[in-house]
Amino acid sequence: MGLEAWFMEENDEDKRLPHHRNPKEFVPLSYLAELGVLYWQLNPKDYENDEELRQIRESRGYNYMDLLDLCPERVENYEEKLRNFYREHIHADEEIRYCLEGSGYFDVRDKDDRWVRIWIKEGDMIILPAGIYHRFTLDTGNYVKLMRLFIGEPVWTAYNRPQEDHPSRKEYTSSLFGKNAGVALEAH
């Protein structure tokens, strides 16, 4: 089926709803690639033996992996965790998430500071570049099982907006608006 993404209508309704604009404005993968967001569609039923996943991990240096089951029954302080995930922030490193079960939304800011909602579902793997403003929430299914990948030891530090002087944010905005903007990316 492939990844779905769209420009969001900003309002105070339940964050787990799709928040489509009227009319709906879908965003192609090429637009996400311009923002530095990488995407793969993989086989979540056999992730332990997936050759493509192994190649991605090897080529990008992802040597640490863990799994996160995010739902009210399995996470202590569930509501607080979701509020923290939904707070707009950046990271100093890439954020790599592979959806093994369920679904949820990653929202990223585009060049014009508009929210783009990315609906990840089973089999979707995305990489958000270091320095991109983003947030996460579940959809109305209230469940997602994610694989989290890192280079080296995991770093969970989120830097809440504003972070315009953070080195990763400066590097990210330079890549967006500088000479490297629009360079083709390796993902499909």
From TrEMBL:
Ni(2+) binds at residues 89, 91, 95, 134. The keyword Nucleus applies. CDD domains: cupin_ARD. GO terms for cellular component: cytoplasm; nucleus; plasma membrane. Its cofactor is Fe(2+); Ni(2+). Transmembrane segments: none annotated. Its EC number is 1.13.11.54, 1.13.11.53. It comes from the Eukaryota. Pfam families: ARD (PF03079). It is a peripheral membrane protein. It is found in: Cell membrane; Cytoplasm; Nucleus. Catalyzes 2 different reactions between oxygen and the acireductone 1,2-dihydroxy-3-keto-5-methylthiopentene (DHK-MTPene) depending upon the metal bound in the active site. Fe-containing acireductone dioxygenase (Fe-ARD) produces formate and 2-keto-4-methylthiobutyrate (KMTB), the alpha-ketoacid precursor of methionine in the methionine recycle pathway. Ni-containing acireductone dioxygenase (Ni-ARD) produces methylthiopropionate, carbon monoxide and formate, and does not lie on the methionine recycle pathway. This is Acireductone dioxygenase.
